[in-house]
Amino acid sequence: MFKTIVVGTDGSETASEAVRQAVDLAAETGAKLEIVSAYEPVPRSRLKQEAQQAPEDIQWTIHAREDVEATLQEVVDSAGAKGLECSTHARQGDPADAILDVAEETSADLIVVGNKGMTGAKRFLLGSVPNKVSHHAPCSVLIIRTT
């Protein structure tokens, strides 16, 4: 049914629900999970300042992607507990573009995203990430109700 599933996360509670369901679906279908998280660039001056304030033995861990890598590792740990094969993708820039790029690069069969932004009168309008993904995806898209 599905061989490759792409799921995006920013570490938020709503994204975690989409991830949980993507992990369950991958476990049921035997699909490989491609986990994506996007980040904004951090100014070099801030990174340098943070590194100077950190103990010498951990200064090497301070870089623009450190928060994203921690978020991705949480998902890998969760997927690994179910015996899933997975890969991570930390991408700089727009989250929707990152998800779409990984879906194309991996020839994904399915993209899983949350419906963040669908509340009240806006329930007929998706949040910007699921909206963009659903309109430009190279494969099927599963939008998880997370709100």
Helix proportion of residues, in percent?
40-55%
Task: State the strand order across the main sheet.
Answer: 3-2-1-4-5
How many E strands? 5
- Secondary-structure element sequence? EHEHHEHEHE
As a percent range, the share of strand residues is 15-25%
Secondary-structure-based class equals alpha/beta
Task: State the name of the first-level CATH class of one domain.
Answer: Alpha Beta
Average pLDDT taken over every residue: 82
Main sheet characteristics: 5 strands, parallel
CATH topology of one domain: Rossmann fold
Count of runs of 4 or more consecutive helical residues: 5
pLDDT < 50 runs, ≥5 residues: 58-64, 117-126
User: Which architecture of one domain per CATH?
Assistant: 3-Layer(aba) Sandwich
Large-scale geometry: globular
Radius of gyration: 16 Å
Task: Note the topology.
Blueprint: E1 4-8, H1 13-29, E2 32-39, H2 44-53, H3 66-81, E3 86-92, H4 95-105, E4 110-114, H5 128-136, E5 140-144
Parallel strand pairs: 1-2, 1-4, 2-3, 4-5
Helix pairs in contact: 4-5
Short description:
Helix content is 43%, strand content 20%. By secondary structure, it is of the alpha/beta class. Helix 4 (95-105) runs parallel beside helix 5.
Structure description:
This protein is an alpha/beta fold. It has a domain at about 5-40 and about 70-115: HUPs (Rossmann fold), CATH 3.40.50.620. The protein contains five helices and five strands. It has helices at about 15-30, 45-55, 65-80, 95-105, 130-135, and strands at about 5-10, 30-40, 85-90, 110-115, 140-145. A five-stranded parallel beta sheet has the order 3-2-1-4-5, sandwiched between helices. Helix 5 (about 130-135) links the parallel strand 4 and strand 5 (about 140-145). Helix 4 (about 95-105) packs parallel to helix 5.
